[in-house]
Amino acid sequence: MVDLSRVEIVLLDMDGTLTDSVSRITEYFAALDLELHGRMLSPDAYKKYVGPPLADSMRDMEPDADEQRVAFMVARYREMYWPNAIDVPLYPGIREMLEKLRARGYRLGLATTKSQEMSLQILQHLGIADFFEVVSGVIPDTSRVDKPAVIAWALQQFGVEEPQDKRRVVMVGDRFYDIEGAQINGISAILTTWGDTTQPGEERGAVQVVSTPAELLSALGVHPGKN
To answer: Does the N-terminal or the C-terminal CB of the chain have fewer CB atoms within 10 Å?
Structure first.
């Protein structure tokens, strides 16, 4: 088992990990599917689109789509979703978890495939922006468009480059994309399941699986009841 006692930097995913945005996201994927394809599946059918890059989700939704069509679908989804994207709640215990981690001296970063602009707006709206030293989200039309890239950029901002330094970092998220992105960048990952978005088998590669923010604190050696 990986020694998490060395960890000093915690990278956190947003949707399904910090924010309870799953129902909002699946609602707009369903609306997009209805508009473009005349179908609307059950909300659970769209949960797999919480986490991966939008373009990947659109290719899955419409396998024959060319890149121009994918770009159109991404733009249309953002047009529908963004006006209502900011007003999402934190999962229970998240604010307290962030407070405890910062009080214990952990450096926190956000690593998400939500856009950089929207991520900053959501953090500010929720009043938790000051907890994060680094915010790394997607910037369209750049190389920062998927999980490995946003994690890599976050590591650069923290000055983490050498393999021995990467032992001080852990990625925390609810999907395989978080685990895979961490592995590609040579860091460990913890899988969270409190967001009800994790698909079967996605725990492979995670050093630990936690079902509550309190369990995450314990995994990092932070007693939930103490600063």
So the answer is: N
